[in-house]
Amino acid sequence: MPAQETIQRAREDAREGKSPSTQAGEFVREEIHHVREGKHGARSAKQAIAIGLSKARRAGVKLSAPKGSAVLRKKAAQDEKASKNPQHKTSATRSRATEAALKREPRTSASKSALARQTKSAAAKRGKSARNVAAKKGARTRKAA
Known about the structure:
Blueprint: H1 4-15, H2 20-37, H3 45-58, H4 70-84, H5 92-103, H6 112-125, H7 128-141
Helix pairs in contact: 1-2, 2-3, 3-4
């Protein structure tokens, strides 16, 4: 369950009309903090991000379906369905097992270098024009310091 503070920040982003990915960024940020502070680990930076996105979907952030395998899309749909019925009881056994498995994973997956590596590889998969558009939008919508 995400912290109330994270949910509040995501809702504030939604009220300000920010994109779903920005709203979801709050959950990803929280997950990165969890790994860094040693609450649990992650096999890779990608896994830590995926956990955050899953929590965002379950909290009601309207993210688009991920591009990937049918299993991945099914999991995302399951998360969206769970957001519509938040009172549903989580299996304690499964929750404990997941937590135990994550505790065995390394903490280095949320290091600055690991996140930078993941970001660069994700950006490289996009086309040059897509990166260009993203950079221009970033410059246009960046808050004045």
